[in-house]
Amino acid sequence: MATAKPLPEGLAAGSFTIGEARLDGLSPWRAKAKDIHVPSRGIRVPAGPEQSLLARARPYTPMGTADTVSFFSAAEIHAFKLPGGVAGVRLPLSARILHLTRNGSAAPRRKGVVGHRSALPPEDVLMLQGVPVTSIPRTLVDLAGTGALTREDIVVIADDLVCEHPRYQHRRIARLPLRDLLLYVEQKSRVAGLPLLRSALELVCLGVDSPPETRLRLLFGCSAIPRFEPNYVLMDSVGTPLWMDLGCPEYRLAVEYDGGHHLTPAQQQSDALRNERTASAGWRQLVINKLDVRNGDDWVLVRVRQALRAQGWPG
Q1: What SS3 state is found at 246?
Q2: Which of 80, 256, 222, 78 has its CA nearest to residue 158?
Q3: Residue 55 to residue 51: CA distance in whole angstroms
Q4: In whole angstroms, how far apart are CA 180 and each of 26, 183, 208?
Q5: Does residue 216 sit in helix, strand or coil?
Q6: Distance CA 166, CA 222 (A)
Q7: Phi and psi of 120, rounded to 5°?
Q8: Is the pLDDT assigned to residue 2 strictly greater than 60?
Q9: Helices 136-144 and 178-187 sit at what angle, rounded to 10 degrees?
Q10: Contact at 8 Å (CB) between 246 and 238?
């Protein structure tokens, strides 16, 4: 059996269109060889390492009427904190398929694509490595209009996007400043996701570092327990700032979420020192981990209430 000749360098690097193949002198026979996958008409994907979503989407956007990568695909490119990731069990199966939005009278219709039609003003589209993708705020609005995400899910995503704080060695700069997001939403109208997004923005808070911290913050906020402040700064016994995921100054209780990275010896040593510093400042520290979260909201709240009572709360 004859072995197919290697692809030209420009085509072997990633997905390409049939038009690009012709320009590179690729024969129709070679474009149908077994080492080339055909995900949709006019698109070819060479065998090799897994490509990024942005690279896989590139050939789809210049074909026919220009299309823009959008919705869940844009969210993956922008690294949104979706529930369970793009493959999350609560998301529709279509979340894993390429989403394209067209400025025109009809949505894109082709194999392997979820098509949308919408008027996208220039400011709602970014060019990333030559690929048009909906902007971060536009993608957030679009996701809010899918019906697949709850208000809490939207708050989780927005908390991460707007997060900024000056913590030592862990400084965060907002990918989308909260004031810019609020202004964007204020200026928008007649977009399906606006009501849910506006409702979610009432709960968004600066300085929250992870989705579990956001979900704990929201859980505490709707429960009959004393107020906890996110990203609370405590001065320890020697006057050094100590940042708390959630702090209740009234009863001097700090709640920390313990993620998987806390299992390393170095992090465990750091956590032990942190606990000592918290105690020396007259505070109590309660650590909530992913096993607690898996046990459900009631379990988490029982632990928090017990810690609060130990600090003098009469509830």
Answers
A1: strand
A2: 80
A3: 6
A4: 47, 5, 18
A5: helix
A6: 28
A7: -105, 105
A8: no
A9: 60
A10: no
Per DSSP, the three-state class of 266 is: helix
Q: Tell me the torsion sign for CA atoms 101, 105, 107, 108.
A: negative
Q: Are 254 and 232 in contact (CB under 8 A)?
A: yes
Q: What phi-psi label fits residue 254: left (phi over 0), alpha (psi between -120 and 50 degrees) or beta?
A: beta
Cα 148 from Cα 186, distance rounded (Å): 23
The DSSP-derived string for 105-166 is SS----TTEEEEE----GGGEEEETTEEEE-HHHHHHHHHTSSSS-HHHHHHHHHHHH--B-
Residue 52, pLDDT above cutoff 70: yes
Q: Treating both helix axes as pointing N-terminal to C-terminal, what angle do 151-162 and 194-201 enclose, rounded to 10 degrees?
A: 60
pLDDT band for position 168 (cuts 50, 70, 90) = low
Q: Which pLDDT does position 260 carry in this prediction?
A: 61
pLDDT in tens, 10-49: 777 778 777 777 777 777 767 778 777 777 777 777 877 7
239 Cβ contact partners less than 8 Å away, ≥ 6 residues apart: none
Instruction: Name the burial class of residue 170, with classes exposed (0-12), middle (13-18) and buried (19+) by CB atoms within 10 angstroms of its CB.
Output: exposed
Distance CA 72, CA 121 (A): 19
Q: Which of 127, 130, 121, 90 is nearest to 103 (CA)?
A: 121
User: How many Cα neighbours within 13 Å face the side chain of 56?
Assistant: 23
pLDDT category at 1 given cuts 50, 70, 90 is very low
Query: What pTM value is reported for the model?
Result: 0.85
Query: For residue 217, is pLDDT > 80?
Result: yes
pLDDT (tens digit, 9 = 90+) per residue, 245-297?
999 999 999 999 987 654 566 666 667 788 888 888 899 999 999 899 999 99
Single-letter residue type at 105: S
Tokens of 93: 């199966």
